[in-house]
Write a structure and sequence with these properties.
Helix content is 63%, strand content 3%. It is mostly helical. A hairpin with a 2-residue loop joins strand 1 (68-71) and strand 2. Helix 2 (49-64) packs across helix 4 (90-107).
């Protein structure tokens, strides 16, 4: 659903650019809390979000290269907002997808640069907000179990894709550059993206389910799934019955050994490299949902060439390498590496800034305490 240059006019592109910038700014503040494990949703596993957030961005980049057929002559691919929000939190999720869209637009000429605000608003903001909002509602009403997390992931991801299609239709109604009946655009976009949503839901549920199976503490949406550790006072010690009530034991819980995320990180990176560097060669070559609708309905009448169409990595192939398998695979590996480096850099900086901000009051109060 990457919107090219020329689909949306300048005023709406500027407005969505401002909205996207505001969303990223808010997400930067929210992500600092998520990465530090404070605020709503914080707790066990939150302090390990920073090294995983960059990996989530790289994984989404890789899986987006795997277009799957959804109808005659049409394909779809992961958007990733639901997956990112459930794994690392909604604010961090917006940043993950935004990093992916930035790398795709700059390096691979995928998604217009003047339409970057449109794409971030549609593919990062709308999908994440809709998916995570629905996910939290479902988690509250479903039984408290790992299976419920997977089911909620499936449903929220499924709904997020047609929601993004509706958002694009609304933006096109405001600033579309071709004279196309909005009713036709709405019907075509929502129809094909409901089908794409099924693929999105399957990928999201399988990924979330796989991580929950081995490390539920690393899934942001699953925090609080396990009951907190409690201490019980035995009546044999002579304590009164009232004293036998359960009491939280934060000190004991804090003393639990920390499990390394290295194996999960390496497994995720390996999966991303295999998807981008190998499996992507077998992805569907059919146009994705937006491209198909744009061609059929005439939305692309005023589409413009991408500003970086001459990039050495344009169209996910390495320039001057004639073997398509090698060219596409190498481009995918480069994309995974670049997205991982940029994403990890952003999230590590945010985490350190949050830690520095938390440490500052303690340092400022130390002289007064000594006095």
């Amino acid at each position: 659903m990457h919107v090219p240059d020329g689909f949306i006019n300048a005023p709406v592109s500027v407005a969505t650019g401002a909205l996207a910038a505001a969303a990223v700014a808010v997400s930067l503040r929210g992500a600092r809390r998520e990465l530090a494990g404070t605020g709503q949703g914080g707790g066990t596993g939150a302090e390990r979000t920073a090294p995983l957030a960059g990996l989530v961005a790289a994984f989404i980049f890789a899986v987006q290269m795997l277009n799957f057929p959804v109808a005659a002559g049409t394909s779809g691919h992961l958007l990733g907002g639901a997956l990112a929000a459930i794994l690392v939190g909604p604010y961090t999720g917006v940043l993950c997808v935004s990093v992916v869209l930035l790398m795709q637009g700059v390096l691979f000429a995928d998604g217009g640069l003047t339409a970057l605000g449109v794409n971030i608003t549609d593919m990062a903001l709308v999908t994440t907000v809709v998916a995570y909002g629905l996910f939290r509602v479902l988690v509250k009403v479903l039984p408290r179990s790992r299976r419920s997390i997977t089911v909620a992931s499936f449903v929220s991801a499924l709904v997020s894709v047609p929601a993004a299609a509706v958002a694009f239709t609304a933006l096109y109604a405001l600033g579309g550059t071709a004279d196309v009946p909005i009713g036709k655009v709405f019907t075509a976009m929502v129809g094909v993206h409901v089908l794409i949503g099924i693929g999105e839901a399957a990928i999201t549920a399988l990924t979330v389910g796989a991580v929950i199976a081995v490390r539920p503490d690393l899934v942001h949406g699953a925090r609080g799934l396990t009951a907190p550790l409690e201490l019980r006072t035995s009546p044999l010690t002579g304590a009164a019955p009232a004293a036998a009530a359960t009491t939280p034991a934060p000190a004991v819980a804090a003393a639990a050994p920390r499990r390394s995320v290295r194996r999960v990180w390496l497994a995720g990176l390996a999966a991303a490299l295999v998807c981008a560097g190998g499996i992507s060669y077998y992805a569907s070559a059919s146009p994705d949902g937006l491209e198909k609708v744009a061609h059929d309905q005439g939305i692309d009448a005023k589409a413009r060439d991408h500003a970086t169409k001459d990039s050495p990595l344009a169209d996910y192939s390495v320039k001057d390498i004639t073997d398509p398998r090698l060219s596409g695979g190498l481009a995918g590996v480069i994309g995974v590496g670049a997205t991982l480096a940029v994403g990890t850099g952003v999230f590590v900086v945010l985490r350190r800034r949050r830690n520095a901000a938390d440490a500052r009051p303690s340092a400022d109060s130390a002289p007064a305490e000594r006095a």
